[in-house]
User: Fold Chromosomal replication initiator protein DnaA from Flavobacterium haoranii.
Amino acid sequence: VWENCLSFIKDNIQEQAYKTWFEPIQSVDLTDNALSIQVPSKFFYEWLEEHYVKLLKVALTKELGPNAKLLYKIKMENSYNNKLPFTHQIPSNDRQAVKPQEVDVPIVQKDPELKNPFIIPGIRNINIDSQLNSNYSFDNFLEGDSNRLARSAGMAVANKPGGTSFNPLLIFGGVGLGKTHLAHAIGVEIKEKHPEKTVLYISAEIFTQQYIESVKKNTRNDFIHFYQLIDVLIIDDVQFLSGKSGTQDVFFHIFNHLHQNGKQVILTSDKAPVDMQDIEQRLLSRFKWGLSAELHQPDYETRISILKNILYRDGVEMPEEIIEYVAKNIKSNVRELEGAIISLIAQSSFNKKEVTIELAKQVVEKFVKNIKREISVDYIQKIISDYFQLDIETLQSKTRKRDVVQARQLAMFFAKKYTKNSLASIGSQIGNRDHATVLHACKTVDNLVSTDKQFRKFVDDLNKKLSQ
Ligand code: ADP
Ligand code: MG
Assistant:
């Protein structure tokens, strides 16, 4: 049966393609109308599914009738993929899930000959899974003043990876402002425009886990070697590396190698390089080599278009008034903005009725609370030091100067109010003080608020800033 299929296929595609993609296939089993074929790798299987699935279907149907089924067995998995704890990151609606009903669960066999766990010997162009989420594209990353610089820098990098002065490109900004989305979009676009490039998206956390694993297993060199083969390396949330000097060290070497060879590095972080703590100076200085682009909080118009885009995508209509209400009240976090509108969509379709402003209020309130919970002690210190025009070191220092003391006490007061951290943990993050100092600060602020008008204004202003 397979022979017949092959000769049909051979007549219908170019010889080179036939040689590359069909000669290596072996048929292994035929039961009823299900033919099993063995392919050399997962990548191979994906390629077949992407490019030749129609042809295969026609060929099989001719041989086995309309209920023909094709099962794939994967002979030797690219061992990199099955070693690393990656799969959980891939969203189920990504292209990985091609026709699951027709595909046998891949049988992954490790090649015992393969000594190096990360690369396939003799192959320069490694086929790795990029870990990119194609739902995060440039198309649905709506543009506004808040992200224009970062977005267009990302586009430039996608057009010419490694060929712009934006290397590394560092995208930074607060939670839920689109760093991960933009990082994926750049990768997805590069894959599209430069399919020959090896792109890898990885969070700094998984990178760290892999590194630690490689040290345990004595494969540190392989780890480094693997990363040095990548053309476009995207590392998300590099602030996670803070305090992890071993991982920073290895990343430094990988970074230098890639950079020297004209490879593109893209990083995201929740802080600007100047504000990153416990990251080695030599790494920070590398981060500043290229471009640091900030994602700001989106303005009202952008928030409206983000909401409308979701409604449009889901084919749902909602009164203008409701959209405006949501956009007016959720300002500082696109994830929460999306969450609120999705929750409203769900409730309206569940109750089969129009969303009322009352319902919108309830939902929005819930999401605004979420945002408050995400404020960190670091963030509070930044807001306070900006407000009083001090730098964070001064705020945390031992100085007893009255204005600094007040700012410091306010930082402690707001940290207690807006975060779930213990007094001890707040103290340790604000210049290494103990819990009694934090408690004292909170009482002092309470007192001053009721006695000092100027001070009350500080507190009101800061409250506004922090609850935005
Ligand atoms: P971060 O990594 O900065 O915490 P994410 O990239 O996870 O934020 O973004 C949070 C959510 O907001 C995602 O669902 C993302 O698609 C969405 N989002 C952020 N910015 C935009 C934008 N400009 N246009 C459309 N969606 C956006
Ligand atoms: Mg993120």
About this structure: Strands lie at 26-31, 34-39, 69-74, 169-172, 199-203, 232-236, 264-269, 291-294.
